[in-house]
């Protein structure tokens, strides 16, 4: 049967109500059709197994950047060109070339060497923020991953404030709100000028042997052209900012409901890894768009060329057909069916090991310093399409000094 002939539930994914409780609406859609729904932005795949299978059809699918840029009316803008040309939008040899230019830095061995820097960044932030006793945790979390990315790039953290708002706007650009396009374009131009200044200051050969130097060297050798170099830097700064801080905030929201888990995180560093992995299973910030480039049939449903598909991977791990009691946050659960928070196929998240490491280190150190955390105001949510997450998470807590070394790592 052709997909357009199905009687499907319409999901209002663009609404605030959906963003605040997406699983309620997705569950209703599953009762109407086992694994498909529809929406204003395309067909929604509501079953994790179906998402896992279809996302792997790289030969039949492409990133939906053309459709997104057209929806936003952005063909003649810098942001539109960036969206069409960035690494995530490419395939084949071009995609491999762009990915290989930075892949080494994001491999587990390289990431693990950065853990001491991650701990140093979050420790400094905790020294600054812990005495406040209450604040918006999402604002606190916004300072951490971007500071780590600045360290990796060899850029002074003093320059973070000048681009943080632009990075925040870039993170919301895939929410498909055309009225935001002038603001999005202005933010993109700010980021372009920022990376241009970094490249000019470093010079054609570099001297720091960091990620920025590596990318400049890739340009000098012809692996990246001048535009690709700047677009890659913008992409990495954006990726290093939005998803990790949103995921850290989502995990904190679950910890407010699970104080025993939180207190154990302060004592047991290895347990934090399980908490973070369960956090990615329960919620994740990113959703995925694809456009059909070659027709295919899945479970008896045929998808023609041009079909827009939306994969709500942010909540895919709450599918009760793949996880037992999925609404229960359980770091000790046996995950026979793995989550797909980082996607699948050739576009699987390049920074997944970096994201895990940052959040693991942050959860452990924050748990040592924030005792008895509790909700202190209204939780607000970002739009669900694109990079989802909590916009505001006001918390209060009792400050506590770091645990002694003899306690850290015990269970």
Helix fraction bin: 40-55%
The strands making up the biggest β-sheet line up spatially as 1-2-3-9-6-4
CATH architecture: Orthogonal Bundle
CATH superfamily: Cytochrome P450
Q: Identify low-pLDDT runs.
A: 404-411
SSE class? alpha+beta
SS element count, helices: 17
Number of domains: 1
Q: What is the percentage of strand-forming residues?
A: 5-15%
Classified by CATH, the class is Mainly Alpha
* CATH fold assignment: Cytochrome p450
| H/E element sequence | EHHEEHEHHHHHEHHHHHHHHEEEEHEEEE
Radius of gyration: 21 Å
Could you tell me how far the N terminus lies from the C terminus, measured between alpha carbons in angstroms?
Answer: 54 Å
Number of strands: 13
- Provide mean pLDDT, rounded: 90
Please outline the major beta sheet: 6 strands, mixed
Write a structural description.
The protein is of the alpha+beta class and 411 residues long. The chain has a single domain, classed as Cytochrome p450 (Orthogonal Bundle), CATH 1.10.630. Helix content is 49%, strand content 12%. The protein has helices spanning 16-20, 22-32, 48-55, 65-72, 78-85, 92-100, 108-113, 115-129, 137-142, 144-153, 160-171, 181-202, 211-220, 226-257, 259-267, 269-282, 352-369, and strands spanning 10-11, 36-39, 42-45, 61-63, 134-136, 288-292, 296-298, 301-303, 308-311, 370-375, 380-381, 390-392, 394-399. Strand 11 and strand 12 form a beta hairpin. Helix 12 (181-202) packs across helix 14. The longest helix has 32 residues, at 226-257. It is globular and about 60 Å long. Residues 404-411 have low confidence and may be disordered.
């Amino acid at each position: 049967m052709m997909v357009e002939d199905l009687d499907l539930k319409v999901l209002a994914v663009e609404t605030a109500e959906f963003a605040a409780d997406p699983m309620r609406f997705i569950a209703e859609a599953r009762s109407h059709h086992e694994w498909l729904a529809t929406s204003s932005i395309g067909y929604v795949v509501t079953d994790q197994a179906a998402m896992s299978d279809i996302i792997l059809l790289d030969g039949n699918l492409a990133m939906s950047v053309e459709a997104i840029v057209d929806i936003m009316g952005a063909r003649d803008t810098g942001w539109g060109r960036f969206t069409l040309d960035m690494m995530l939008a490419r395939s084949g040899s071009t995609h491999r070339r762009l990915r290989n230019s930075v892949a080494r830095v994001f491999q587990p061995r390289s990431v693990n060497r950065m853990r001491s820097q991650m701990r140093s960044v979050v420790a400094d932030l905790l020294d600054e923020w812990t005495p406040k006793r209450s604040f918006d945790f999402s604002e606190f979390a916004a300072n951490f991953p971007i500071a780590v990315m600045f360290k990796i790039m060899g850029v002074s953290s003093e320059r973070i404030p000048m681009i943080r708002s632009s990075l925040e706007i870039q993170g919301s650009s895939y929410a498909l709100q055309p009225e935001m396009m002038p603001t999005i374009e202005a933010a993109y131009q700010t980021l372009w000028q920022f990376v241009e200044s970094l490249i000019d200051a470093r010079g054609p050969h570099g001297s720091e042997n960091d990620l920025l130097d590596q990318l400049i060297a890739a340009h000098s050798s012809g692996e990246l052209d001048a535009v690709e170099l700047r677009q890659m830097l913008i992409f990495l700064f954006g990726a290093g900012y939005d998803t990790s801080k949103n995921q850290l905030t989502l995990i904190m929201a679950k910890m407010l409901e699970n104080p025993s888990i939180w207190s154990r995180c302060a004592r047991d560093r290895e347990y934090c890894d399980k908490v973070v992995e369960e956090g990615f299973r329960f919620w994740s910030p990113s959703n995925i768009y694809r456009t059909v480039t070659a027709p295919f049939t899945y479970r008896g449903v045929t998808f023609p060329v041009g079909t827009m598909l939306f994969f709500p991977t942010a909540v895919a791990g709450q599918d009760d057909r793949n996880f037992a009691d999925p609404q229960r946050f359980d770091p000790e659960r046996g995950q026979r069916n793995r989550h797909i928070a980082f996607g699948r196929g050739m576009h699987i998240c390049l920074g997944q090991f970096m994201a895990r490491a940052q959040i693991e280190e942050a959860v452990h150190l924050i748990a040592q310093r924030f005792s008895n955390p509790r909700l202190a105001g209204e939780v607000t949510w970002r739009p669900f399409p694109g990079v989802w997450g909590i916009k505001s998470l006001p918390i209060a807590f009792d400050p506590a000094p770091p645990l002694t070394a003899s306690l850290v790592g015990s269970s």
